[in-house]
């Protein structure tokens, strides 16, 4: 089973995780910009973080046979930071980098006016940079927050096929399916979705435009949840091709819209999808 985790915060994880992920079949990840867990005290903290997602983390991942790309943004949680405008002014030059395959995560956390302004500004940047967008949906009042996020995306004129709306569950999947946006599901050990509920959603809504992630970070989370979903799909009667679509082809198709997704590697004659690299 080959796995592309489309949303994981590897900065918060150990090298043991990289090793276990590779053993489970993970060959590619996208790491969206996240918050520290505590407020940043200066502007350089944001920029050092962006630079680490572009430099150090891909290097670390490659040592374990995993291809690493990132999505950059001012995270919704940090959109309320007083340095918001400064970060947004720096962001466009970062979005030019080759390893950036989306703007994200953006959206609402506490649904404040500051968050809305940062969300709209970054949707505009995605349009200008020709990048797809990863939209985080709030954990509280999720139905209203998701509805409002879809409205903001639509008002910004973003084509729905370039938008991934993440952290969905049973009450929010339907409206995103109807919108034409891609649907993301974070599988956590005890909150949000679990593999059984995920399989039920795939049965009801099908496998098109569906992405499954571990969203693993510094909180209670598990980077192998993507593999658990793949196993649960097979146990429930889905075929290998269905699993490959959800866990590999869908994230490749979504982030491939950036024109920057690069799954080749020079070593061992294999690319990250497990295919032999053709020479000449
Ligand atoms: Zn996240």
TrEMBL record:
Keywords: Hydrolase, Metal-binding. The keyword Nucleus does not apply. InterPro entries: Metal_Hydrolase (IPR032466), TatD-like (IPR001130), UCP005295 (IPR012022). GO terms for molecular function: hydrolase activity. Gene3D superfamilies: Metal-dependent hydrolases. Belongs to the metallo-dependent hydrolases superfamily. This is Metal-dependent TIM-barrel fold hydrolase. It comes from Nonomuraea roseoviolacea subsp. carminata.
